[in-house]
Amino acid sequence: MLKEVRNKTFANGVCYALQTEDGYPLEVTDTFLPFYTKDAIGKNQNKLSDYDLGDRTERWMIGVSCMSGCPVRCKFCATGNLKKYRNLTADEIVEQVEFILSKNPDYDPKKSREFKINYTRMGEPFLNIEAVKEAIFKIDQKYPNVHHYISTIGIKGSDFSFIKDNITLQISLHSLDTEKRNWLIPFYHKLSIEELGQIRTKSNLKTTINLTLVDTNDFDIVKLNQYFDPKYFFIKLSPINPNSVSESNHLGNGVIKGKNLV
Ligand code: SF4
Which pLDDT tens digit goes with each residue over 74-93? Predict the structure, then answer.
């Protein structure tokens, strides 16, 4: 049973710090956005057009952790503050979803125009992939309209064959400069930029390439064009969420000046 430790409310949702029965910390987010922000491809951006943030009947997103802590230790990620890590079980992942639903008894996810589980909080999903797959299976049984969105750095040897239909992949690329990417994501056993560009899935949606650009040298339109066919990939530019780890690595606020709401 996960225990709530504290929470922080934002304009469009809440972030909860939870703890496993054996004392490991994790976080889960509960956010919402107006439905029009889903059309990022058609509009080339997904910024809010006004102060109306919508509610959970429009786009409802639950960001779950797959691990407590993370061995990857990206230079911009606050998870690096935790010395230990452990994989979460499938039930601990499903329980995060149920925890958020229990906090919102007035909303029915089956009635939301979009109901999405983002595997984007603590942990690299593909280092705990069997538990993630089992959690997806269990969540699918209960919420047939759900969409799963799995974010990975691209672990060597990953099997992407289960990424199909209502499951979509996001790849944390961050820099098109290999040396810089290796510094930002100091995990040896990962796919090269060229190998990432060869990933194909059978998802209803294109694979997202996420670029949290630290500086302008991280962007290279020639390489982007060379490796990532727009038929299969959607490019997303994200701001850095400054935290003590990103600040200790002198990463500043990054190239994108907009802010994530949560
Ligand atoms: S893989 Fe994800 S959770 Fe792990 S350190 Fe990198 S950004 Fe953080």
Answer: 998 999 889 999 999 999 99
